[in-house]
Design goal:
Structural class: alpha+beta
Distance between the termini: 51 Å
Oligomer: single chain
Low-confidence stretches: none
Largest sheet: 4 strands, mixed
Strand content: 15-25%
Order of helices and strands: EHEEEH
Radius of gyration: 14 Å
Mean pLDDT: 88
Length: 120
């Protein structure tokens, strides 16, 4: 089998309600992953070409729900099910990242960024 053209990782990490870092899938419903799979299928993009996988914590909790697309290394934050169609059409099909959802490089895997609470 050939390698995937794109691999979409959707954070499905769960934390207790009220946790200061938040939770990408607090109800463990896997709604974002299901929406990606459905949207890809509706668009006629087989799972052998583009894979949408649930991921564990990607350490971007303050930006969650988080999605990353490889091999492009494009990180999206605060993704909702309503954003999935736009990501698929613009990025996966059209090759253009969805600017309004992009995480700033300065925030990815950074000890501090404008979205993380200050620790005293």
């Amino acid at each position: 089998m050939p390698k995937f053209e794109k691999h979409i990782f959707i954070c499905g990490n769960q934390r207790p309600q009220g946790h200061p870092r938040g939770s990408c899938d607090p109800e463990a419903r896997g709604e974002l992953q299901a929406k990606f799979k459905l949207t890809l299928a509706e668009r006629g993009i087989p799972g052998t070409r583009v894979r949408a996988n649930k991921a564990g914590c990607m350490e971007q909790c303050e930006h969650g729900p988080t999605v990353v697309v490889y091999p492009d290394a494009i990180w999206y934050g605060r993704v909702t099910p309503d954003d999935v169609g736009e990501i698929v059409e613009s990025h996966i099909v059209g090759g253009k990242a969805v600017e309004r959802l992009l995480l700033a490089d300065a925030c990815i895997n950074a000890a501090t960024c404008e979205h993380k609470p200050r620790r005293n």
